[in-house]
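Figure 3 (text version): structure tokens given as input.
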């Protein structure tokens, strides 16, 4: 997740975003996050369940174990599973797709709201949000821009982005999405003069 965007790729993304903003009367925000949430309790819950399963199997295999010995087996299993499930790539696999999408969607909306509140004089804003860990991408636009853009435009840009990501080109996918958003913004919010 951390290696998906090199410093060179980040610089190219920043330059592409700046180029779009120079050519249009809109603000394009690009937010790329490694994960949308840390999911702190997911690993612990799964570790507790796995350690209970280990204790149950131990009790079935060796019925002569004392309760204190079973408790020790369960404690060791709990620590081992907790350490394993604390590793983010494993933890992300334990979280349901629905839950990951919901968390990423919430963060995208918070980021969009922060850009609206903290933004400058622009009224026309678009946010390209990418959460690498959740493999989630969304384009959010202000009400006026959303009304001007034909239905399905943002979905087509997201689909093209996802196709590039599947081929292993995350940075190229982001750059292509920025260029596509720029084309839409140039058409609907051209730079005055």
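Below: residues designed for each position.
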């Amino acid at each position: 997740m951390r290696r998906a965007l090199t410093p060179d790729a980040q610089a190219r993304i920043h330059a592409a975003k700046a180029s779009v903003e120079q050519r249009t009367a809109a603000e394009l925000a690009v937010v790329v996050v490694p994960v949308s949430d840390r999911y702190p309790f997911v690993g612990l819950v799964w570790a507790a369940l796995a350690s209970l399963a280990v204790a149950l199997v131990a009790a079935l295999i060796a019925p002569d174990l004392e309760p204190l010995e079973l408790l020790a087996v369960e404690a060791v299993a709990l620590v081992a599973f907790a350490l394993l499930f604390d590793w983010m790539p494993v933890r992300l696999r334990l979280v349901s797709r629905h839950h990951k999408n919901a968390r990423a969607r919430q963060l995208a909306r918070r980021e969009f709201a922060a850009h609206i509140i903290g933004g400058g004089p622009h009224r026309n804003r678009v946010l390209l949000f990418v959460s690498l860990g959740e493999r989630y991408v969304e384009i959010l636009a202000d009400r006026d821009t959303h009304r001007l853009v034909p239905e399905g435009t943002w979905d087509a840009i997201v689909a093209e982005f996802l196709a590039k990501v599947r081929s292993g080109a995350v940075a190229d996918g982001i750059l292509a999405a920025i260029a596509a958003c720029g084309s839409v913004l140039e058409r609907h919010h051209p730079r005055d003069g």
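Helices lie at 7-23, 42-61, 67-85, 88-94, 97-118, 143-148, 153-166, 170-188.
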